[in-house]
Structure formats: C-alpha cells, structure tokens
Amino acid sequence: MQWIAVSNIKGGVGKSTIALSLAHWLAQKGYTVAVVDDDRNRTVSKWQARAAMNPNSEQPAFKIYPFEEIGKAEGCDYGIVDTAASVSDETIKEVTEFANIVLIPCTPDIDALTATQETADQVIANGGTYAILLNDCPRASKRENQDIAEAIADGEYELISQFVRHGIGIKRASLAGKTVEQMKGTQRLPWLDFNAAFQEFSTNYLEV
C-alpha cells in the first residue's frame, strides 16, 4: 500500500479538492483507494455527505474515512491523507515519516509560494519525497502563474509541470458533491488539467 499526504502549512490552496480528484483518478485506473480526512474542517467528509444526498451525483469509487478510522484504509492500493492546514513542523515530520510521498498544492500567489517552499523544506529535512502542484491558476494571469512556477524551479524544488486552471466548476462540483469530471461543458475543463497532472505525478513519483 502506498500513502500520499496532501499537505501545505497554508490553508486555502486546494488540498481537499486535489485529494478527492486524485482519489477519483486513481480509482478510474482500477486501483482501490481510500481518502483519510485529517482536516479539522472535515471538507472531504462534508463532500461525501453532499454526494450521498445528491441523486444526480455518482457515488465515489473510493472510500472516505475520518482520521480516527485510518485503520480501515489498510489493504487498499493507495491511501490519500487530506491533512490539516497550519500544521506544525512536528506534524510535517510525522507526515513525512508516514507517507511515501507528500503532494504539496500551491496557488499562484506569494504567500502560498512561501508556505509551499517552507513545507517542501521540512519534507526534505526529514528525508521525505514530495512534489508541488500549481493549482487554481487563473487563465488570465499566465505571467503571474509562470513567475510562481519559475520561482519554484529556481529554488530547485520538485514541480509537476502541468498547472491546474482556476474554474467555477471546481467550486460547484464541491457544493454538489460531485467530482470535477462530472461537471458539464466548460465547468469540466479543470479536469483535463488534473488528468494530465496526475498522469505526470503517477509516472514520476508513484509505484504503479
């Protein structure tokens, strides 16, 4: 079993959306997947409740457990932990020791960049493996997106080359208890980015 922690010391960078989307992507590939909700906001668990109540939402092909029931995830091919924001250095150390890899979401702004670099530094200091995913990138701000990407690359950090665009479909999917792939028309476009990013992540960082 491989464990993936989705973590950043800053909140609001899309951890829960990425955890759910990655779980969906891996399940589509035929793997058994469990998402463990360790976020104090319980975003993943609330999404699961909305999915169960929405007759137009396909039920997820992966399991979701609160952190207290993490043992139930044992035996799956992949376990994905959606960690809390504003975690301490000690928590990052524990996450690094536990997970095979830490996936670090980063939005294209200076505060998120600084927090992302600090998170990656902690993972590195504890001998872990990580990859950074640039997420929620406005299509009208290509220069800013590229500047953040170049800053990450200049620091010799591990960056997934595929960005994930900003899209209203991500928020609406969350509110409806759907995956981004289930959205229609242009609201589904961010899924194309997720698909390419996860393919790159899987090829370069996962044992498949």
UniProtKB/TrEMBL annotation:
Pfam families: CbiA (PF01656). CDD domains: ParAB_family (cd02042). It comes from the Bacteria. Gene3D superfamilies: P-loop containing nucleotide triphosphate hydrolases. Residues 4-177 form the CobQ/CobB/MinD/ParA nucleotide binding domain. This is CobQ/CobB/MinD/ParA nucleotide binding domain-containing protein. It comes from Leptolyngbya foveolarum. The lineage of its organism: Bacteria, Bacillati, Cyanobacteriota, Cyanophyceae, Leptolyngbyales.
